[in-house]
Specification:
The protein has 340 residues and is α+β, with helices and mostly antiparallel strands. The protein folds into two domains: 193 residues, no CATH class; 125 residues, 2-Layer Sandwich (Nucleotidyltransferase, domain 5), CATH 3.30.420.10. Helix content is 35%, strand content 22%. The protein has nine helices and twelve strands. The strands form two sheets. Strands 5-4-3-2-1-6-7 form a seven-stranded mixed sheet. Strands 10-9-8-11-12 form a five-stranded mixed sheet, with helices on both faces. Helix 1 packs parallel to helix 5. The chain is elongated, with a radius of gyration of 23 Å. The two termini are 30 Å apart. Pfam families: DUF6930, DUF7309.
């Protein structure tokens, strides 16, 4: 059950965000220079990325909690390159676990935070550089942070302030060579915070494979009639808020779509239930399609985790897999979005 932050907690977060804005952290860090902070009461570190140094970039402090957050940050940073060349930016941004402090006009604030800011008055906040706090979670609409998230953001930003001060005063020998990060960690033995450069490699989300355990089923599927059909498949967020009282924040309906590449017709369109995984849905689609329609010649997706999951089983069944652009699905989704 969601628990809201008290006004005192919000005050401390606004105070930390306004204080660090005065230092202009985007003048000391680019979007590719990461800060890693091991907070006192957290089991895993938080990974921070600062936007605002590049032309046209919004000024943001992005906080990615834990090693899963590090994987999500890697996914965002690698968009358009390597295995993620064709991954949808909309999917990546919506599927991440992140806490964002975005500076902009006061009028751009979430409604719930407008009420908080009115109650607090906030004399330290600037009209055109007002901090807006956003919580991103996979399968949910971006929403205002809850109590735990407010507390985590406050501590992360306070510690980031000390990192920026150290950079400002040139106290850290940062070279920002490949995989070098600015690390800050509390030393329990000395009771002091330590800051130092350390090499931490990027970490991608794990690739999961699909397997058919029953050999008789595998043989049956191998012998299904082959069709000259290329199929495009992918997952999409619809960004239409759906109530979830238990979570205390609206869900973001998550859609699986498969279409015939030649005809452009939708083969299947399915909204995932909260407990369903992408892998299970792709697996069910493949088995159902093979039994009812026969073997397609090729499956294409822009999502590398889908393609990697399908590679082995499709190779065994004589189906080609391709990581590539899904233009047919893109056009279909535009039409669907226009109707919503």
């Amino acid at each position: 059950m969601r628990k809201e932050a008290a006004l005192k907690m919000w005050w401390e977060l606004y105070e930390a965000a306004c204080r660090i804005e005065e230092l202009k952290p985007w003048e000391y860090l680019t979007k590719d220079q990461y800060v890693v902070i091991q907070l006192k009461d957290e089991k895993e570190p938080v990974f921070l990325r600062i936007l605002g140094n590049g032309q046209g970039e919004e000024k943001e402090i992005q906080i990615y909690p834990g090693f899963k957050g590090w994987q999500d940050l890697t996914m965002i940073a690698e968009l358009g390159t390597g295995m993620e060349e064709y991954l949808s930016e909309d999917y990546a941004m919506a599927d991440r676990r992140a806490l964002i402090c975005r500076y902009g006009k006061k009028s751009d604030m979430m409604y719930s935070q407008q009420e908080v800011s009115k109650a607090l008055n906030l004399p330290m906040a600037k009209e055109e550089m007002w901090p807006n706090f956003i919580s991103y979670r996979s399968r949910y609409i971006p929403f205002s942070p809850d109590q735990d998230e407010v507390l985590l953001m406050t501590e992360a930003i306070r510690n980031l302030f000390m990192c920026i001060r150290a950079l400002e005063e040139k106290k850290l020998p940062m070279k920002w060579e490949e995989n070098e990060r600015l690390c800050r960690i509390f030393n329990v033995e000395t009771g002091l915070w330590n800051m130092f450069p350390a090499k931490i490699s990027k970490q991608t989300r794990p690739y999961m494979g699909m397997q058919i355990q029953k050999e008789e089923l595998k043989e049956e599927l191998k012998n299904t009639p082959e069709k000259e059909q290329n199929v495009q498949i992918d997952f999409y967020y619809t960004h239409i808020a759906e109530s979830d009282e238990e979570a205390g924040r609206p869900r973001n309906p998550f859609l699986f779509v498969a279409a015939d590449e030649k005809t452009g017709k939708i083969i299947t369109r399915y909204f995932l239930k909260p407990e369903e995984t992408e892998l299970s849905v792709v697996s069910n689609f493949l088995l159902s399609h093979l039994k009812q329609q026969g073997r397609m010649r090729k499956i294409t997706s822009g999502n590398p985790w889908i393609i990697k999951a399908l590679e082995q089983i499709c190779q065994e069944l004589g189906i080609e897999t391709e990581l590539g652009r899904t233009e047919v699905l893109e056009e279909l989704m535009k039409k669907i979005e226009n109707r919503m």
